Amino acid sequence: MNKVTPHDAIELLDRLIATPSISREECATADILEAFLREKGIEVQRIHNNVWAKCACFDASKPTLLLNSHHDTVKPSAAYTKDPYTPLHCDGKIYGLGSNDAGASLVSLAALFCNNYRTELSYNIVLALTAEEEVMGEKGMRAMLPEFERVGITADMALVGEPTGMNAAVGERGLLVFDATAHGVRGHAARNEGENALYKAIADIERLRNYRFERRSQLLGDINIAVTMISAGTQHNVVPDECRFVVDVRTTEAYTNEETVALLQQAVECDLIPRSTRVRASAISEEHPMVKAAAAIGCERFVSPTTSDMALMPFPSLKMGVGESARSHSADEYVMECEIIEGMALYEKFIVELNKLL
What we know:
Elements: H1 6-17, H2 27-39, E1 45-47, E2 50-54, E3 64-70, E4 88-90, E5 93-95, H3 99-115, E6 124-130, H4 141-150, E7 157-160, E8 168-172, E9 174-183, E10 187-188, H5 197-210, E11 224-232, E12 238-239, E13 242-251, H6 257-267, E14 271-274, E15 282-283, H7 289-296, E16 301-304, E17 317-319, E18 334-336, H8 337-357
Parallel strand pairs: 3-6, 3-7, 7-17, 8-16
Antiparallel strand pairs: 1-2, 2-6, 4-5, 5-18, 8-15, 9-13, 9-14, 10-12, 11-13
Helix pairs in contact: 1-3, 3-8, 7-8
């Protein structure tokens, strides 16, 4: 099999940019990726719009490294000045929706897998190019992990391709969003009747604002709580019997999401209902071979402020990819051609270093 070159990877990225793949509508880009891998002689599998493959020399007795990135995108910003679906090469930049998040990482990891498909390593490599990451949908990574279990693949660790400037994100916070409802009794404001649900909500908001968790993550710090939306009342002279507000909680691995939910529900009087507990905090030990391998090739460690499919992975994971996070979801999104070339080279060095450590 001919090696996948940076030119090949950039050509694939152009095709992906030119093909709309908004979350839950990624069938066409999945087709492109499946065809690309088949052309390289790889035995490809697919579930929904997730395209995946295992290395030719897969050995169940070895640990398995999952190479993962996503091919779905957010909707293009109304502020675009360029066509988001026309890949534009200008001054070393490649413009287009999904170029930076996470197309550049995806094509670089696909190239890495293709170029090492038959390489004997001390570990297996499995490639998963997944869908619905931007919405953490049920047919993305949430479907991919049970599929691995069904076919007897156990992922022991993951390298997640997201734009990090090829630095190593050793952790990211989880997320809980609560819908809160404070209950009162409706009455006429002029007669000072009823129980004002708004005042009850204010009391609970103060409780949340001042709440402190006993345990603190050494890597991620404290759990952060922010009330971000509030709504109450129907007209000026009616005491509201209900006040609704939204609470944004950025979690750490010091507590499970379920523990965090239980503690906060005990701290307030209102109904506090989590929308989901799926988005978990992720943290990997400094002693993990992936962290050591990243350090050996000069990648700086940091804690990511953004979430990714790492939140769904119940095994050690490291987020490291091509491009810069600040460009994600922005108008006129772009990635540098040189970033793809450098990223592909660093990924190759990474798997060599990891091979020495496992």
